[in-house]
Specification:
Length: 401
């Protein structure tokens, strides 16, 4: 039997430019599956391009419901390459290894290469591992192989020591691979007999030097201001007045900034069993309760201080979910689901934080959600709503309301 080697991969390589060096080139390749099934859903670009595609994998022993890969390289300024691979609703070895999501990011410059990512909702056999953010490995239930997560460029890898689960010894299953490299271009060689041509040294205008220094200081000040604003927001939103938005067992996936069909992902997805209660994170007023093609069943919650929170993909609403109604923190607003464009994914709630109001930009909510999750103590009011059954309530509203 041929060994399985399947990957959701993004590959990016970059060679940097320099006035005294050879011509700069860049190369980017991304594919959703490779190895045994051959390349599937492949993208490629060169010379400072950015490529992205979405797709799914369904081969013997491995199913990935949805995912995307992107590879970006740049030639301007400092050479840089970034590769991102995301897999959702993963089932390997016919369900022996499953995960809500696998994400791997590699960012490379001339000076360093950095890796980041997480495996969310990992389950191996009957053991629920949960979220894994560090390099770790686990035995398969029958000890026929190892499951390795967050190691180097690979998000999740299964290496078979011997035959097991219908997979032969030596099989290598790879999910979410992100490879990136960056290096300065090699110098252009010259014939030994060629004498160097003298060139006058350039003298920079003092006014230009002062302008460059002022621009650098302005950039630093903007970064300091942004970091200070973020600290103030986190301090305001992590007080005991706030609650985690999902009751019970849930896994938060840090998918902030990941590519989506309508742009970069502006929130985090919180995965939980279908019908898990979704709660108001704070005292506030509800608005725009309704259904849209992409968001599915969605609503907004705005506090008296003006901070706004967006919930999407609910399976149904609770009786409390009425536009204009004031609710308390912990009130059941609805239930986890996969309505809208989330239909192919496991049940979850898409959650956004917009400090200062609905019209203002969202921020990455992961650190705040983690803080809320660490002190979850409030149970939902059982009188507010009951967990839904098989039927799902869908309300039709005018788009945009």
């Amino acid at each position: 039997m041929i060994a399985i080697c399947v990957s959701l991969a993004a590959v990016a390589t970059l060679v940097g430019a320099s006035t005294a060096r050879g011509p700069a080139t860049s190369r980017a390749v991304a594919l959703i599956a490779g190895g045994h099934p051959g390349p599937q859903v492949e993208v490629a670009g060169a010379d400072g391009s950015s490529e992205r595609r979405e797709g799914a994998v369904d081969v013997a022993g491995l199913q990935i419901r949805s995912g995307e890969v992107s590879a970006t390289t740049s030639l301007g300024g400092e050479p840089r390459a970034r590769a991102i691979a995301v897999a959702r609703s993963v089932s390997a070895l016919d369900g022996v290894v499953t995960a809500y999501g696998v994400r791997r990011t590699t960012t490379a410059t001339v000076k360093a290469t950095e890796y980041s990512g997480r495996v969310s909702g990992l389950r191996i056999g009957d053991q629920l591992i949960g979220d894994v953010t560090k390099d770790a490995s686990f035995d398969l239930p029958d000890h026929s192989g190892r499951v390795i997560v967050n190691h180097g460029t690979i998000g999740l890898r299964i290496l078979m020591r011997r035959d097991g689960y219908g997979v032969p010894k030596g099989a290598d299953v790879r999910i979410a691979i992100a490879e990136a490299s960056s290096a300065a271009a090699t110098r252009t060689s010259k014939p030994e007999s060629a004498a160097p041509t003298p060139t006058p040294s350039a003298t920079k205008d003092p006014d230009e030097s002062r302008q460059d220094a002022a621009e650098r200081e302005a950039r630093r000040e903007r970064r300091r201001s942004a970091a200070k604003r973020r600290r103030i927001i986190e301090q305001r939103l992590t007080t005991p007045a706030f609650r985690f938005p999902v009751f019970g067992a849930a896994d938060t996936v840090d998918g902030w900034g990941a590519p989506r069909q309508i742009g970069a992902h502006q929130g985090n997805d919180i995965f939980a069993e279908f019908g898990t209660p979704v709660l108001a994170v704070a005292d506030g007023t509800l608005s725009k309760v309704g259904t849209l093609p992409i968001s599915g069943n969605r609503l907004w919650l705005t506090t008296a201080g003006g901070d706004a929170f967006f919930y999407a993909h609910l399976s149904s609403f609770s009786p409390a979910a009425v536009s204009g109604r004031a609710v308390k923190a912990g009130t059941v607003l609805g239930f986890t689901g996969n309505t809208g464009d989330a239909e192919p994914t496991p049940p979850h709630v898409h959650f956004e934080i917009h400090p200062g109001g609905i019209e203002l930009k969202a921020i990455d909510p992961y650190a705040i959600l983690t803080s809320w999750s660490a002190r979850r103590t409030l149970a939902p009011d059982a009188g507010e709503a009951q967990r839904p059954g098989a039927l799902v309530e869908v309300r039709d509203f005018i788009a945009g309301e």
